[in-house]
TrEMBL record:
<protein>
    <submittedName>
        <fullName>O-acetyl-ADP-ribose deacetylase</fullName>
    </submittedName>
</protein>
<dbReference type="Pfam" id="PF01661">
    <property type="entry name" value="Macro"/>
</dbReference>
<dbReference type="InterPro" id="IPR043472">
    <property type="entry name" value="Macro_dom-like"/>
</dbReference>
<dbReference type="InterPro" id="IPR002589">
    <property type="entry name" value="Macro_dom"/>
</dbReference>
<feature type="domain" description="Macro">
    <location>
        <begin position="1"/>
        <end position="167"/>
    </location>
</feature>
Length: 333
């Protein structure tokens, strides 16, 4: 773990292995295939000739040569024929066989393109769904960092109704919040969300005799984020591994949080754990507060998470697809 969707040129990914969406000959072609062959140099073509082609769904391995990766894993995706000719099963096999090769060769980081989503005509949203489901299943059993690489955000398409519903919710909540702030500022008043001036909010200090010593205050420190996280994992009857994998969190980061009660994670990490634990909105706000954060309607990413919690969408990878398409920071990592 985790699975990351990134916008990049796959030939520049500094990982152990990149996956090439190849054709049956393995001798190069257009799109990603051609770009990988050009970047790797003529030695890749010579190595591919020795492999004598590849059948749909299979995967074969070569060195990376001039690429910044150790290996190139070549796989041949299915040509889209309407979905009734075993395309989904063959596409899933591409990912499974490529990952098995990567694991067998000691790879810890692997970058995939969206296989078959180019010239082979597989609908992008469906191709992404197959990729995410297959990779997520692999990551439930094995530790690896996997990237799905798209060249431009416009080339990415999240499927399903969640994206449409979230964008509509953002329009309702985000616009209203910003209109209220703008309207109040135009009237010469501070926005409703702003704190009152210090003079109006001043609270009288307690009598000298009622003041607690520093030692007494420190003894009253509330439960911290790490403590709350571990308590919630126990309450939900989950193992640590189940929790951090569902949160799309790296095991090493989880161990830092677990072993250091004073560790302060980032906001997206806290939200990922809240989603993994299927916390309610009040519980999520409490967990954020433990780490020094809060949900805000001035943040589109916060609104996305709020909508998903309110409507029972607790799949971090699905939420991250929506966040990526909106060009927002994903959860986890």
């Amino acid at each position: 773990m985790p699975l990351k969707i990134v916008r990049n040129d796959i030939t520049r990914m500094e990982v152990d292995a990149i996956v090439n969406a190849a054709n049956h000959s393995l001798l190069g072609g257009g799109g990603v295939d051609g770009a990988i062959h050009r970047a790797a140099g003529p030695q890749l073509l010579e190595a591919c000739r020795a492999l004598h082609g590849c059948r749909t769904g299979e995967a074969k391995l070569t060195a990376g040569y001039r690429l910044p990766c150790r290996y190139v894993i070549h796989t041949v995706g299915p040509v889209w024929q309407g979905g009734g000719h075993g395309e989904r099963e063959m596409l899933s096999a591409c990912y499974r066989n490529a990952l098995a090769l990567a694991r067998g060769n000691g790879c810890e980081t692997v970058a995939f393109p969206l296989i078959s989503a180019g010239a082979f005509g597989y609908p992008r949203a469906q191709a992404l769904q197959v990729a995410v489901e297959t990779i997520a299943g692999f990551l439930l059993e094995y530790e690896m960092t996997i990237y799905i690489v798209v060249f431009t955000r416009e080339a990415f398409e999240a499927g399903g109704k969640l994206f449409e519903h979230v964008t509509a919710y953002i329009d309702d909540v985000y616009v209203d919040a910003h209109w209220d702030a703008t309207r109040e500022s135009l009237r010469g008043c501070p926005p409703l969300s702003c704190p009152a001036p210090a003079m109006e909010r001043a609270v009288p200090a307690p009598p000298t005799g009622a003041r607690a010593s520093l030692e007494e205050l420190l003894r009253q420190v509330d439960e911290g984020f790490s403590q709350m996280l571990l308590r919630k994992i126990d309450e939900k009857g989950m193992t640590d591994a189940e929790c951090y994998k569902r949160a799309n969190i790296d095991r090493r980061l989880f161990n830092k949080i677990k072993n250091n009660p004073d560790y302060r994670p980032g906001k997206q990490t806290v939200l990922a754990f809240a989603i993994a634990l299927e916390l309610s909105l009040p519980e999520t706000k409490e967990m954020l507060m433990k780490a020094g954060f809060a949900l805000s309607h001035s943040s589109k990413a916060d609104i996305v998470v709020e909508y998903c919690i309110l409507h029972g969408h607790y799949d971090v990878l699905e939420i991250n697809q929506v966040l990526f398409q909106l060009d927002l920071q994903p959860l986890g990592y």
